[in-house]
Amino acid sequence: MVENTKCECGHNNPVGTILCEYCGKPLQQEVIEKSSIENEMRYEGAARRSQQSVMSLFDRVWAFFSSVKVAISLIVITLVLSAVGTIFPQEEFVGAASKELFYQQEYGWWGSTFYQLGLSKMYSQWWFASLIAMIGISLVICSLDRVVPLYKALKGQKVIKNIEFMKRQRIHVAVEVATDEEEAKLAELEQQLSKHHYHIQRDGKAILAEKGRFSRWGPYINHIGLIIFLFGILLRFIPGWNIDSFVNLVEGEIKRVPQTEYYVKNEKTVAEYYRPEELPPAMRSGGGQVIKKYQTDAILLKKVFGSNEMKEVTRHEIQVNDPLTYEGLNLLQSDFQPQQLRGIKLGIKDKNTKQSKGQFTVVFHDISLHQVYQVGDLKVKMEEYYPDFAIENQRPITKSREPNKPAFIFTIQKPDGKEEKSWVISGERLPDPEGNQYGIDLAGFDLANQTGLMVRAEKSLWVYLVGGIIFMIGVTMGSYWQHRRVWARVEDGVLYIGAHTNKNWFALRRELEMVGKPIGQVFGLVENEKE
């Protein structure tokens, strides 16, 4: 059955229209039976795509996401899950090697369940990103489903409205007017409304006075701001877009900056202390040193495309509250550890003559296999390196990349070209193979200052700022202004007046009473109850 949407005024309305687009007369029986059409005026009674009776699959998806209830449900679900994710620490703040074991030992069954459900890294999960995206989609569809029909209705609204439309406004009045006073009353009404900053349109014996239409777009501008804000959140899932990490470097060490293509080199790390004469008397008696500043002379590097060479990008003397900053990447001074182990010094001794042949230094952060050290007339080549030495299944392994128990296999090449191998294991003294002329022993430690740098990058800040500003513009538009309209029409010796506002009805009523007094007419305004 095809729905008849043609109004008695002759205008053909789209299917689903509640109020005639041309004259405003109610078209649906349930609306005709109402005394007020305030609810229907929210979107001017226009047909919305989500309310079509015949729907394709796309229309059904559109109708689902256009529902305010769905949008609120998605927001509530996301908020609840976000709160649940804060019950226990997220994985990024857990320093334990085994994350699963940490949650189980610290929080028992609840912690284990928390980990198994993926809540320990919730904010990087695909389903959390999907929820954020669905909220954004819902905001877009909710807005388009309402703002497009509303814009068309307001842009094409007619001056002459059906009497039933005016009588069903929440505020309305009907006043008998003598035939010879009709024009004068309309002119005076038009003049008074103009004084209250209404924009006037006139068509014969009908008037449309309107002001503050722009405030109707406030909620939709809010939505734009929120959509931009949510887009900024989704950008955080791009690698390197949001970084909250940490890097430790001893002097001379180069490390890759986490989640970026850059490397940072610690050229020098120093701590400066106050001299006693620089301190107030109350602080001198303690006898301890008072730190004045921590400083790291850092260089930011980047690999040259197609090679292993690095070029300098920028350098900076990093101090507390004075970070190295480059294209949104920030390296902040966070920690200082003096005299940390950077390497070991090994000495070579001729076992026959008991004479020392010299020393060489193995720097842990600058180790490469088959690296050759020149010690006098000997060449020492590193064959194998195990930072955290252990034996498993009768084979040497390393338990981690940290030099907790370093072990080395060296080949010593003599001047005559002959070679011999030696094992060096931290904390253990192994007998050299029989026939070895030279022995390698620990001669000392290479110590250096270590710096701790926080790595921060938040490239979405400007997105949040733009979204926040747009959101506040929408809030201001919708909060401090109202869209007010007054329709007036003379028909059969009666002046009909209907008025509508999207909020603050008391102020509109008072304003209309002020409009009526100068023209010698005290309007007995009738206010329909909202249904």
UniProtKB/TrEMBL annotation:
Keywords attached to this entry: Cytochrome c-type biogenesis, Membrane, Transmembrane, Transmembrane helix
Biological-process GO terms, alphabetical: cytochrome complex assembly
Domain ResB-like, first and last residues per copy: 68-422, 434-513
A Pfam entry, by short name: ResB
Protein localization: Membrane
Cited InterPro entries: Cyt_c_bgen_Ccs1/CcsB/ResB, ResB-like_domain
Residues that span the membrane, as ranges: 61-88, 126-148, 220-238, 461-481
Topological relation to the membrane, as annotated: Multi-pass membrane protein
GO CC list: membrane
PANTHER family, A to Z: CYTOCHROME C BIOGENESIS PROTEIN CCS1, CHLOROPLASTIC (PTHR31566)
Protein's name in the database: Cytochrome c biogenesis protein
Species annotation: Baia soyae
Organism phylogeny: Bacteria, Bacillati, Bacillota, Bacilli, Bacillales
